[in-house]
Automatic annotation (TrEMBL):
Belongs to the acyl-CoA oxidase family. Pfam families: ACOX, ACOX_C_alpha1, Acyl-CoA_dh_N. Residues 517-658 form the Acyl-CoA oxidase C-terminal domain. InterPro entries: ACOX_C_alpha1, Acyl-CoA_Oxase/DH_mid-dom_sf, Acyl-CoA_oxidase, Acyl-CoA_oxidase_C, AcylCo_DH-like_C, AcylCoA_DH/ox_N, AcylCoA_DH/ox_N_sf, AcylCoA_DH/oxidase_NM_dom_sf. This is Acyl-CoA dehydrogenase. It comes from the Bacteria. Its cofactor is FAD. SUPFAM superfamilies: Acyl-CoA dehydrogenase C-terminal domain-like, Acyl-CoA dehydrogenase NM domain-like. Keywords: FAD, Flavoprotein, Oxidoreductase.
Amino acid sequence: MTTTSRPETHPSTHRMAQVSEDAALPTHIDVAGLGEVLLGRWPEARKAARERALDPRLHSDHNLTFEDQRERTFEQVKILRDAGTALVGMPEYLGGSNSPGANVSAFEELVLADPSLQIKSGVQWGLFGSAVLNLGSEEHHLQWLPDILNLTTPGVFAMTEIGHGSDVASIGTTATYLPETDEFEIHTPFKAAWKDYLGNAAVHGRAAVVFAQLIVKGTNHGVHCLYVPLRNDNGEFLPGVGGEDDGRKGGLNGVDNGRLHFTHVRVPRFNLLNKYGAVDENGDYSSPIASPGRRFFTMIGTLVQGRVSLDGAATLANQMALTIAVRYAEQRRQFNTDSDIREQTLLDYQQHQRRLIPRIAETYAMIFAHQQLLDKFQEVFSGEDDSDGNRQDLETLAAAFKSMSTWSALATLQETREACGGAGFMAKNRIPQLRADLDIYATFEGDNTVLLQLVAKRLLTDYSDEFKNADVGVMARYVADRATEAGFNRSGLRKLTQAFTDTGDARRSVNALRDPEAQRALLMDRVETIIEDVADEMRAVARKSKKEQAEVFNNNQHRLIQAARSHAQLLQWEAFTEGLEKIQDPGTKRVLTWLRDLFGLHLLEENLGWYLAYGRLSMRRGRALQSYVNRLISRLRPYSLELVDSFGLSAELLRAEIAGTVEEERQQEADEYFRRLRASGDAPAKEAKPARDPKAETRGHHA
């Protein structure tokens, strides 16, 4: 077993005496072994990417003007090109390795160097290039991908419109087939149809993949994608193409975002990326997918890579922020609580532990969930299992995890910023700029709230499918079960039963909640109950007008998003539980089991009002839950540093002053100064407290 001891600059083993429940606590976590597990299925790709991230040429420089930041980022992308990173996920006939999972794993690590670099390279190869690869034919690949891969053709992914950000199916740009010239005419008929927020559009883009309504012989076949040249070699827009610069943004200013519009721009019929919809030389449209709706979602689903990679990048941002904050909190001392001469470290305070340790637990859950998402992505895009069902599962997982991780990253970056005080606000300590750069992650590649609605609709669909072919007997039993369940919970019988069995010993309540099956059941119950309630309301209006159905759906939108969030958290908890099986070292596994329990029980604590309201937990068990979460956090406190050290992020990768030993050195200097002062006998005496005057106190009370 490989073990690592805590550096002397981060002492924390003195907290071991606090724990009474598990006397035989392990002394250390196997940091090296755990670190390997956390790297996932493609560790070498991640390690190589981290090695590249040490190159100062790839680092952010926010002292530059945003115009200069854009040029610096473009030069950084060229460094990646020269390293051959873009080829990893490409087919072998293009010189690639056909390893989408390894490609995304390495790409995610770019957030360590510069989020702007990650996003700009992602636009070029992960969006622009992937659209040609996944929506085009082999002829398209051979025609355009070599120049895309070597940056001869910097490109734009032109999907989003000012008027239809998330509602891609309703975009206004059109691509009309002209049989007389065998061309498509690309046109934005009104300003709301302008393509906006597009990376590479303001300055560097030479071509774009443009999403438009495909109109052939007077029939709209829905959204399709076409390859459209934008600028000449001098960087000037081609005839009919226009655009604007989005200018300075709240973050990611190394990416040149802009708007594009098209006025009767013509491109050859060949430029239609025709894997899922083609127009032949006779002007006839055909598609291997008959249903327009299914065709649309299949095309959009091929571009899921962006959401997968954002989930991984946000998870890495959490690791960075928590490593910085925990290392600082292990050194920073403030207030004398149990000593007259030595102040307390921040991480010894319960509230500081509450701020950081549950977020460590959440981040571990995110890591294991992301590993499962990457496995699913590899299966689909390498061809191992490219079935419709697997694609749908991938899209749902990506929507769920991307939403949860990007929101978590923003919350964690804010919490760690505050937890580090004024030092956390200094740009040299990375957190403020990471917070600014990752802000947009919550709304691009799909607004999180909209994505969770997609997850909720999938839950409703799966739920209704269970009963699609059910006979009368099955439905009768279901109705009876629902009636019994509702009566049981709403009458408070379950609550009374729990209150009775819980009396006498609070540990009995805790033991029930420590059981992983109980945690899973409670997490799942919240999802199923909400979905069942909404499904019942939707079923009641199933034969009524669309307006009435839409009204009922809208009235339940908030609950559906709650269900989707809870479903994503359940999947994260399950991934964490499965991830425990990868841990070989007994001590490490024990600590991570506590960490998994903390993740699950903290979720229950956050939603305690719901569990009490629905009778899933008694008041006694609710109080025991909160108490036990505190004990778990206290138990995990001695391992906080080792848990974040297992992320494998060196000081050179973090590039944050307070993640090193600077604070400990300041504390040691201050300690030495006061030690010498006390030893010299010259230390000034403290001002004596004034004598107590009982009469004055009495007069004060009378007043």
